[in-house]
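Dear colleague,

Following up on yesterday's call, I've attached the two folding results inline so they're easy to grep. Please treat them as preliminary; we haven't cross-checked anything against experimental data yet. The first protein's sequence and structure tokens come first.
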Amino acid sequence: MKKIVLGSLMAFSLTAAQAADIVDTAKSAGSFNTLITAVQAAGLVDTLKGPGPYTVFAPTDAAFAKIPKAKLDALLKDKAALTKVLTYHVVPGKVMAADVKPGPVKTVEGSSLTVSAKGGTVSVDKAKVVKTDVAADNGVIHVIDSVIMPN
């Protein structure tokens, strides 16, 4: 009896650990604090916790640090502009690295970003993809080294 209960608890723990949406997955990674702050300021938490699926090109804290502090602070206070920038980082559907094709990709923001591949390096606009396929239960995160801005 104890063996069955322990096995069930272990199975539950593994399932619970894997069931994390994009927001919670980014939070637990620990390198997306500025992105999480921006998502909260833009009121996009519920959307990114929703059913999706979404593909998020997620800038790290170091990527956000490349933006001058005054410009970043102003962006975080301008909900409309912030929403435009953040939704430019999101593509509808779950696109794993193996399925990425070079060329224009329509974003949730409405315009297209450009995916390119050279010498084994994948870029989204001018940002390099530094880690791929961080799975979430409502999509996937690809980590990028710069914040990308819509035109």
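Below is the second protein, in the same order (sequence, then structure):
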Amino acid sequence: MRIHPIEPENADKQLKTVFASLEKMYGTALNPLRVLAHKPQAMRAVMQLYAAIHEHSATISDELKELISLRIAQINGCRIYCVPMHTFMLHKLGTPEDKIRSLVRYATSDLYTDAEKIAIEYAERITVPATTVTENLFGRLKAHYSDVDIVELTTVISTLNFWTKFIDALEIPLDDVFKEVPASG
């Protein structure tokens, strides 16, 4: 790890509250957020964004958000933290192993719906620098998702691109809690 994390007991009062909620949710304060805590204003802002993108959506499932997150992690090479963490979260959601394993081949897989395929393609186009979101792709996206959904998807994708770059650049290690495969929920 290139930057030592802030220990929860050494954080300011507001961050201690954030760390306590993370402990409750994940069983740990999460290494990336402990590093980001060096800049408390950024950490608080990221936590608000994180809460917004992980708010329940009637049209964009938690599973789809995690599949998109895992695909971005694969593309960006965030293999030490992001790939195992999002794989863990997919297992926790009860996503079948064959669906997780076939993610890199989603476009030709029968395990993915047309709506999931277009959302993952959209994520890839935003993530891979040499590609663009064409009018054709955007039209296909609009056939499955509302404007609100597209803004939500774009926010999830952009946020995950931030995290993969942040975690990889600072060589943040995986939290132990994500090293075990949870029982399917």
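For the second protein, one point worth flagging: DSSP finds nine helices and no strands in the chain.

Best wishes,
A.L.
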